[in-house]
Amino acid sequence: MTLIGREDLGGDPQLAGNEGRSQRAAEIDAAIDAWTGTRTLADVLACMKAAQVPASRIYTIAEIAADPHYASRGNIERIPAMAGGTIAAPGIVPKLSATPGAVRHAAPALGQHTRAVLADAGVDAQRVAALKDLGVIE
Predict the structure, then answer these.
(1) Cα-based angle 109, 111, 115 (whole degrees, multiple of 5)
(2) What pTM was estimated for this model as a whole?
């Protein structure tokens, strides 16, 4: 908190533990917001680095999808799309050497497995038809 000019918060014994910080999270967030709101992202990150405070920007989904580092790590995968072709989708994280995981197929269409799930749960065909008529399921 010294970095952002809030020694009062940094030295407050109530904030020495997580319980106190949790109780005063709004106050802490407001202090950080006030400091970061007057600086560019590059300036904030440079100050954090100089103070040896771990920090990083928060990426948007579009930035993640366009980032070559994410792609090179296999964090964006091309998977089969229901309508044909492929779509970009998040890869499996974490990457484990012995059991790396994989996306094997696209997610099902909305309602694609509803009847099978309901049947497995013991819902009879008459009740399924009634739910469809009511618009509860597709």
Answers:
(1) 130
(2) 0.54
